[in-house]
Design brief:
With about 300 residues, the chain is of the alpha/beta class. The protein has 14 helices and 7 strands. Among the domains are: about 15-25 and about 35-120, Conserved hypothetical protein from pyrococcus furiosus pfu- 392566-001, ParB domain, CATH 3.90.1530; about 180-235, no CATH class; about 255-305, no CATH class. It has helices at about 15-20, 30, 65-75, 100-110, 120-135, 140-155, 160-165, 170-180, 185-190, 195-205, 210-220, 225-235, 255-270, 290-305, and strands at about 40-45, 50, 85-90, 90-95, 110-120, 275-280, 280-285. InterPro entries: Chromosome_partition/occlusion, HTH_ParB/Spo0J, ParB/RepB/Spo0J, ParB/Sulfiredoxin_sf, ParB_dimer_C, ParB_N.
Length: about 300
């Protein structure tokens, strides 16, 4: 089913608290910029079965064991922090934030769940879901990077503006976004904690994808520390370390094609490969890591005509 085209806004404001409009930090001055549509209509006990998931949920992986532990806690103590939903129709709701609590409540057999009921349009749904997920402590680096990229591309933010919105330095935002230039296999390795973000940051300094993958496999096989990988990458760049399974580097791209590859990678939020075979021929490859990532790329292709 095709996704709705979202209207770009610049009203991310002061973080999730400002968008949702709850919490003691929401002073009267902070509330002036909050759209009327996001004001709480009421807090109520809603049937768990009457809620459908947020279609803009950027999180793709929930650990089953952690969900079961949360479900066990809910059976004993109930849901301490209400979720947030919007009303679709009489007796029908759509989740805005709090998917782990909702999923765990279903596992626990809970029939109703406390929820803030709000009015929110599709753009606000996306903003709330992205910012809530970015603020979670247990989000993996790839999920953070994808959320950052979506806020930039779908909410029309620059990197320094995004840093201010999420309380991070621009360099931190840049480091996360650079992860999306790695091959999908390495991104999966980061996502599932096979390697750390430190390993990934070192690999980004290698431009040859085949060599990146070779070093990645070496990390897994030999359980290399981040420091050892940094030293290995430095030696390879300086020509001191001819990695045994290193493949010949492809013919260097022209300056024009290098810029095109860089621009496309930035635009799509993933490492786009441009290969030129001469005589004005070649190919462009855009990898994707999941169906969600494919839909994100397709949305960019459909909704942007500025390439």
């Amino acid at each position: 089913m095709a996704k709705k085209t979202l209207k770009k806004r610049s009203s991310l404001g002061k973080g999730l608290g400002a968008i949702l409009g709850d919490g003691p930090e929401n002073s009267s001055s902070g509330q002036e910029n909050v759209q009327k549509e996001t004001v709480v209509e009421k807090m109520d006990e809603i049937p768990v079965s009457a809620i459908e998931p947020n279609p803009y949920q950027p999180r793709t992986h929930f650990e089953e064991e952690a969900l079961r532990e949360l479900a066990d806690s809910i059976r004993v103590q109930g849901v301490i922090q209400p979720i947030t939903v919007r009303k679709l129709s009489e007796g029908s709701y759509q989740l805005i934030s709090g998917e782990r609590r909702w999923q765990a409540s279903k596992l626990s057999g809970l029939e109703t769940i406390p929820a803030y009921v709000r009015s929110a349009d599709d753009q606000q749904m996306l903003e709330m879901a992205l910012i809530e997920n970015i603020q979670r402590e247990n989000l993996n680096p790839i999920e953070i990077a994808i959320s950052y990229q979506r806020l930039i591309s779908e909410c029309d933010l620059k990197q320094d503006e995004l840093g201010g919105r999420v309380g991070k330095k621009r360099s931190t935002v840049t480091n996360y976004l650079r992860l999306l230039k790695l091959p999908p296999e390495i991104q999966k390795g980061v996502e599932y904690s096979k390697i750390s973000m430190g390993h990934a940051k070192a690999l980004i300094n290698i431009e040859n994808i085949e060599l990146q993958l070779a070093i990645y496999q070496k990390i897994l096989d030999e359980n290399l520390s981040v420091r050892k990988v940094e030293n290995l990458v430095r030696d390879i760049i300086q020509g001191k370390e001819p990695l045994s399974n290193k493949k010949p580097a492809p013919k260097p791209l022209s300056q024009e094609f290098n810029k095109l590859q860089s621009d496309l990678s930035s635009h799509f939020g993933t490492r786009v490969n441009v290969k030129s075979s001469g005589e004005d021929k070649g190919e462009i490859r855009i990898p994707f890591t999941s169906i969600h990532d494919l839909n994100r790329i397709l949305d960019i292709l459909k909704n942007n005509d500025d390439l």
